[in-house]
Amino acid sequence: MSLIVSKFGGMSLADVDSIKKTAEIIRSDSSRRYVVISAPGIRSGDEMRVTDMFYICHARYINRENFSEMLTKIEDRFTSIVQALDLTTDIHYEMMDLKKNLFLGRTNDYIVSRGEYIMGKIMAELLGWKFIDAAEVIYFNKEGTLNRDKTIAAVKEVVSRYERAVVPGFYGTVSGTNIKTFERGGGDVTGALLALALGADMYEKWAESTEIFSADPSIVKSPSIIRNITYAELRELTYMGISILYDDVILLMEHSGIPISIRNIHHSDDKGTLVTDELPPDSRRDVAACIAGRRNFKVIHIRKFGLNKLVGIGQKVFGIFTRRNISCEHYLSGIYQFSIVVKNPMFDLKRAEIVKELQDAINPEDIEVQKDLSLIAVVGQGMGTVKGIFAKTFDALAAANIKVRLIQQGGDDLNILIGVYDEDFEVSVRALYEAMILQ
Ligand code: ASP
Question: Which residues make Cβ contacts (< 8 Å) with residue 343, sequence separation at least 6?
């Protein structure tokens, strides 16, 4: 029997109806054997996710403010779910336990992880499946990074003992009792780790807004939805701010070759988007899959005659940025020029000292900081090898009267990166969409 690990986000568990619907989706395919869940998300008429409520509780406790009211709201929310579903999970006991731990000085991470923990117990009871506390299987190192090997071993050892189980997402442990959470929305990482350790045939992510459009719908009218995409393409889109999945999740699945299926809880019959290493034969394309971009980059151009012959220029330049923890997002070099693209707002704060240090280190003829640059990626696996693709890209931009400020083709033939002024961003995206995707 094939094995699917499914992760359900907060909106799939926000109220009784969505919880019932989620249980129905899980039961509708017997391959869905391990389920990772989030804490309840925002209900209609509500303004907060349960995780946010826990964050507030802890902050109020630390600041010696009244936190009981918020705690009672959380208890009421879980109690109403349990009662409506006719279950026996003892919410009052869980909340008393949480309060005790709050007084004992347990960390913020511990407190906020209780949303997933309690919801996991409820879902396990509803499905009649085994509940496995994430603290038994997800391990972090002392300095806070994921202990992947220990986690994989623990999931193999503990989870695979059961044919079906519910595991809360978002947290794990440093040492058994010391709870640590992933970044916000990190339940997906838990899901991917389970899929990896259990050798799943598929990792499913169920959420509320899951469409991956071929261009930003706020810029392009009714862009098409991408049904098949490769891991590498999705990584490029993630870099451009399309936040469907964390990079870590994509990489974990990419390295293990486990397909990711991105599904929408409101349209459970829709197959959603499938992420794989190679596109299935019937969905191969020799054109771009998507146009995506971001504004507000800066380019630092360093100009000096004979720059290409100077040894160690790159090391000097990168060193100056590295010491300030500013990432050089892209760089381009020529015989006369070395250009660094940055996004980090820290650059603006440190700009004068960075320029001075570059001047002292390289003694260039000129340093220019170009602001307000947008980067647009034309993304499509294998696209770089298609004849005439560059001509088409730049013809489209020329026809729209766009001044191109920067061009880079990724070494993996996956994208063409184009820099334009921020004011030309939207017109460029539309022009590229029409030429490269609509055609
Ligand atoms: N409940 C957590 C959050 O709100 C984690 C998650 O949903 O994956 O960020």
Answer: 294, 296, 297, 298, 327, 329
